[in-house]
Amino acid sequence: MTQSIKWHYPDDFIDQFVCGNAVDTMKDIPDGSVDLVVTSPPYNLKNSTGNGMRNGRGGKWSNAALINGYSHYDDNIPYNEYVNWQRDCLTEMLRVIPDEGAIFYNHKWRVQAGLLQDRHDIVSDLPVRQIIIWKRKGGINFNPGYFLPTYEVIYLIAKSKFKLAKKANAHGDIWEFGQETKNKHPAPFPVALIERIISSTNAKIVLDPFMGSGTTALAAKNLERQFIGIDISPEYCEMAKERLNNPQSVIKVKDTSQKIEQPSLFDDRVVEQ
Ligand SMILES: C[S@@+](CC[C@H](N)C(=O)[O-])C[C@H]1O[C@@H](n2cnc3c(N)ncnc32)[C@H](O)[C@@H]1O
Q1: pLDDT above 60 for 259
Q2: Which of 148, 197, 200, 229 could be cross-linked to 211 through a Cys-Cys bond (beta carbons 3.0 to 4.6 Å apart)?
Q3: Considering only CA atoms, which residue is closest to atom 12 of ligand 1?
């Protein structure tokens, strides 16, 4: 994807939401100039062999909000293309952090065609230092072939001189945070999870190249750190901007017209296919 807009660092970036493509936009950030990256990319959810999202049409959840997906991205590309894209993103993220920097990269392992699809294709050859388990609440498992998955992973990808903040190493590597269900964005982070990550570091500037509703920015602001937010969707960039002044603005209004409650896209991370 090409991008004609050129962004200027730091004015266009620091404490700003930049509406653009993650890889191209990061190219305008100089080497080593952000301390920490915290992000959750689209999971390519609609490229699925399962019943929950089969062929991107929705299968068992055909009426679900998740079929609407993201406002400006379909989340359904061939697997190899997806892996290459994510590797390109991570290459840029690694470039923009210094030797003391780190990336917290959230993803989900899933079963595809009966076999575990972990994310080693994406992170192989990268300096993965630790895998943090984000233990979430249970969901619904349609598949009789395996147990209900209840966690996502957060890869701590660290450059050689990265150190945690004082006393943060007392946290274990299994973190229990319930999923965020009230946010209008289809796949938001819980704020407390991101506050745990940022407060565990001494980072002054935190980048999220898939910022969505601005959770990383809000957590950074709450902890008096600076942020850079990138998202391809103008709608989410607006949502994130408004959220900083009014955190309640992202709360979704309950749809009372639906008799049966349908899961959001975020729930699909738990609903097994
Ligand atoms: C999992 S969501 C992130 C949600 C975010 N963590 C939050 O708390 O709201 C992934 C985001 O990536 C964005 N996105 C998809 N493709 C993109 C691209 N090429 N460049 C930048 N953002 C993209 C989507 O619009 C979506 O908001």
Answers
A1: no
A2: 229
A3: 210
